[in-house]
Design a protein that fits this description.
The structure holds two protein chains of two kinds. Chain A is of the alpha+beta class. Chain A has two domains: about 350 residues, Thiolase/Chalcone synthase (Peroxisomal Thiolase, Chain A, domain 1), CATH 3.40.47.10; about 35 residues, no CATH class. In chain A, strand 13 and strand 14 form a beta hairpin. Chain A is globular and about 65 Å long. By secondary structure, chain B is of the alpha/beta class. In chain B, strands 1, 2, 4, 5, 6, 8, 9, 10, 11, 12 and 13 form an eleven-stranded mixed sheet that branches. In chain B, a hairpin with a 2-residue loop joins strand 1 and strand 2. Chain B has one domain: Thiolase/Chalcone synthase (Peroxisomal Thiolase, Chain A, domain 1). The chains are: A alpha+beta, B alpha/beta. The interface between A and B is large, with 90 and 87 residues. Strand 6 of chain A pairs antiparallel with strand 5 of chain B, so a sheet runs across the interface.
Chain lengths: ~425, ~400
């Protein structure tokens, strides 16, 4: 019989609705089908000219009709689509009346080059445009729509209004861990009785020249432009960086008691969450892996489990030389001898790195993995890395008996979050 | 994360504050500055708009390594500096064991720009036959690779982890003023519920930054011309002066503080946030509603209010109506002295409220209109308000610890 309270006496947190959009497609069904078929959503970038760029591939989402293209516009639309699926799935509240708060992982928002050009044009200055000229141009107005759109809070505001979430919506960023942090905040709110249900969303529609160049200049991106679908090579010996991608995922979290009282279908359980920050370097992990290892151990302990209970790992698995090495190290430290046997397969090999959305997208995929008892593969695994003795579920999906799974997200700036998920409450 | 079981009611204490602004650094500089008339603001750099620039900081004092300083731009330096001050204030700086399990929530904006590169690109784009290719080339060749890290919203927190060793947890909230309100609200709620024992919470803002300026100018939020005190701006249409500032708090569970003999500034009793749909009167109604929720805790004798009013309209008028209905309670604003620091404003005003409670009295008023009344009674409680220039409202209650 399902216990309303977990082993630590806290309300058990379950998932009653899920939605997802990636470069593979819209919706959990479409994404799951393609993930298990080993398909890649990565392609040559057509959204903007890539002449002069070292990386010319990404998992941009170009099939979603959108009136005006900007990071907040696309991020909001993707989030909206994912939330529609999740809330529809959950059958919770009423249209435009979600009975709980919104936690939104969203890319940092800023004026982009199209808007900057328009403002510069309005300044009337042709050359040597200074900040003062830009301010003068901005002052001529009417740029009120830019003000509203490029506020950090604007995406959450739009979603809160659309879905009728309660209270002050929280927009958050922990870089690549953001999506997982959004889920973590939802879990904590339910555990302390602040909410019976929360809407947790991670979204990222931020790919443009400058965002691509920023990562490129840090040598973080794969440059395998000639074969986009084969570029993301997590855990391979010849891995050469991550592939930027767009996506969104939404989860409806509820206390088990609340879910059962209204006869909701339980899609999964979030048994534990853990975090630990790294103080070593702004982009690299501590070489001893202590923060990542600590983060994973915290999550497993928070779930009231031991490493022996983990049947599957959905890794951060970006395909950078550094991350995958560290994650392999952490797996060995946490799982010991079992590390070679616990399957660890990277969704990023197929959908790329969805940045602010990743932690949420991959949590949804992990829940689907647990539900269907099928492991999605790590594709593009042609050259194994002898330093990483891991079962990465190479290239082909396979069935497995799975009870508990771990999902990792490790962000720039050393912000690490891990979640422990299960299909059924204990 | 390990959680303490619910037992006797847990209390959240503010045991450290770190504040930097145009008034200088630290509690003494701020207390002196707030008790005097506002100093001159910078009316030239962004004329006709006015900013309150940050006072000169000796960065080496809180960010010892030059390498760390170089990885940041002003906004992150202000935050990392104020965080260090807060840790010093709480007496936990260098306590590696404690810092390793300290939680952190930062309210952040972001987006410092390289003005020279932007200018070059904008000029070139006008004449380029292939503007997208031109943009790519300039960005690839002219951007400093580590500039991105100086721009990323979550890197204030990242830098605090690296420079000060705070690594228990790290979350960054974005969303203008509400980010500051909810950062303190969530940290407080986690401590009250046993999900956290000690947290570092706050934010920073750089007014002297093109991205902040552009947004506020486009939204017609800024005051123009010679600055007037906050309550004198409405007649001319209102407007805020942007302020550079940083404010961090150490919030700690009472028994945790007692166990290490820490002295509290104040008790953080309640933190509430709201998100009104801003039709006329909605802000006043929201503030009224939040106030009602803390009313049972209020002892009007010894109660003061610190208002985060920005000067923008109609938000300031709506807050004024809320305050006027409680005219018997002495109220202070900080906007005339410090300017408005968006994400960092509520943390600043909560820190100043804590400071006032430690001093046992509200700071003097510099309001020439008389709306901010004198207060003679000893200060026992302070309510702090926030009304965002676009969205979001907040209210906190702090109380003296006897």
């Amino acid at each position: 019989m399902a216990r309303y309270r977990d082993q630590a006496g806290r309300p058990t947190v379950v998932v009653t609705g899920m939605g997802v959009v990636t470069s593979l497609g819209v919706g959990t069904a479409d994404n799951w089908r393609k993930l298990t078929a080993g398909e890649s959503g990565i392609h040559a970038i057509t959204r903007f000219a890539t002449e002069g760029l070292k990386t010319r591939i990404a998992g941009t989402i170009d099939f979603v009709p959108i009136e005006r293209l900007s990071s907040p516009d696309l991020s909001e639309r993707l989030a909206e689509m994912a939330a529609e699926e999740a809330i529809g799935d959950a059958g919770i509240g009423a249209r435009g009346d979600f009975p709980g708060p919104l936690f939104l992982a969203v890319p940092p928002i800023e004026l982009e080059w199209p808007q900057r050009r328009i403002v510069a044009e309005a300044s009337g200055t042709n050359d040597g445009i200074t900040n003062r000229d830009l301010v003068r141009g901005a002052d001529t107005g009417p740029f009120d729509s830019f003000y509203q759109r490029f506020m950090f809070a604007s995406v959450a505001d739009g979603l809160a209004e659309r879905f009728g979430t309660k209270g002050s919506p929280i927009s958050l960023s922990t870089a690549c861990a953001s999506g997982a942090s959004a889920i973590q905040l939802g879990i904590e709110a339910i555990r302390r009785g602040e909410a019976e249900a929360t809407l947790c969303i991670g979204t990222d529609g931020s790919i443009n020249s400058e965002s691509l160049v920023r990562f490129s200049l840090l040598s973080a991106l794969s440059t395998a432009n000639d074969s986009p679908q084969a570029a993301a090579k997590p855990f391979s010996k010849n891995r050469d960086g991550f592939v930027m991608a767009e996506g969104a995922a939404a989860l409806v979290l509820e206390s088990l008691e609340h879910a059962m009282a209204r006869g909701a279908k339980i899609l999964g359980v979030i048994e534990g969450c853990g975090e630990m920050a790294d103080s070593f370097h702004r982009t690299r992990s501590s070489p001893d892996g202590r923060p990542i290892i600590g983060c994973i151990r915290n999550a497993i302990a928070d779930a009231g489990l031991t490493p022996e209970d983990i049947d599957y790992v959905n890794p951060h698995g970006t395909g950078t030389p550094e991350n995958d090495k560290m994650e392999g190290l952490a797996a060995t430290a946490v799982f010991g001898e079992r590390a070679k046997l616990v399957p660890i397969s990277s969704n990023k090999s197929m959908i790329g790195h969805t940045l602010s959305a990743a932690g949420a997208v991959e949590a949804v995929i992990t829940l689907l993995t647990l539900d269907r008892q099928i492991l999605p593969p790590t594709i593009n695994y042609q050259v194994p890395d002898p330093a990483l003795q891991l079962d990465v579920v190479p290239n082909v999906a396979r069935a497995a008996k799975l009870r508990h799974a771990l999902s990792n997200s490790f962000g720039f700036g050393g912000q690490n979050v891990s979640l422990v998920l299960a299909r059924e409450p204990m | 994360m390990a959680e303490k079981a619910a037992g006797p009611a847990r209390e959240a204490w503010i045991t450290g504050i770190g504040v930097v602004s145009t008034l200088g650094e630290g509690p003494q500089a701020h207390w002196q500055g707030l008790n005097a008339a506002p100093g001159p603001a910078d009316v030239t750099t962004w004329a006709p708009f006015v900013i309150h620039p940050i006072a000169a900081l000796d960065l080496d004092k809180q960010i010892p390594k030059k390498g760390d300083q170089r990885q940041m731009e002003a906004w992150q330096r202000i935050g990392t500096y104020a965080a260090g001050l807060a840790l010093d204030s709480a007496g936990v700086k260098g306590n590696a064991e404690l810092l390793a399990r300290m939680d952190m929530i930062v309210a952040a904006g972001g987006g410092e720009r390289d003005a020279a590169v932007d200018a070059m690109i904008l000029s070139g784009l006008r004449n380029s036959e292939r503007p997208e290719a031109f943009l790519n080339e300039r960005l690839m060749n002219d951007l400093r690779p580590t500039l991105f890290l100086a721009q990323l919203s979550n890197l204030v927190a990242g830098n605090i982890s690296i420079v000060h060793g705070v690594t228990g947890s790290s979350r960054t909230f974005m969303g203008e003023e509400s980010a500051g309100v909810d950062a303190i609200r969530v940290a407080h709620a986690r401590i009250a519920a046993g999900q956290s024992e000690i947290a570092l919470v706050g934010g920073s803002a750089n007014a002297d930054q093109i991205s902040t300026m552009l947004l506020l100018v486009m939204g017609h939020r800024l005051w123009r011309g010679e600055l007037r005190p906050l309550w004198e701006r409405a007649a001319a249409g209102g407007g805020m002066a942007s302020g550079s500032l940083g404010a961090f708090l150490v919030i700690e569970e009472k028994s945790h503080a007692l166990a290490r003999a820490a002295t509290p500034f104040a008790r953080l009793s309640a933190v509430l946030s709201g998100h009104a749909k801003r039709t006329p009167g909605a802000i006043t109604a929201m503030l009224d509603g939040l106030w009602e929720r803390i009313t049972p805790n209020l002892d009007t004798h010894g109660l003061g209010i610190i208002s985060g009013a920005t000067g923008t309209e109609p938000a300031t008028a709506e807050e004024r109506a809320f305050l006027a209905a409680r005219a018997a309670i002495a109220m202070r604003t900080t906007g005339s002295h410090l300017g408005h620091g968006v994400e960092a404003q509520f943390p600043m005003n909560v820190a100043l409220a804590a400071l006032a409670l430690q001093q046992g009295r509200l700071f003097a008023s510099s309001d020439p209109t008389g709306f901010e009344r004198a207060m003679n009674a000893p200060l026992r409680q302070v309510a702090v308000t926030s009304v965002g220039h676009w969205r979001g409202e907040g209210l906190a209650l702090l109380e003296a610890v006897r």
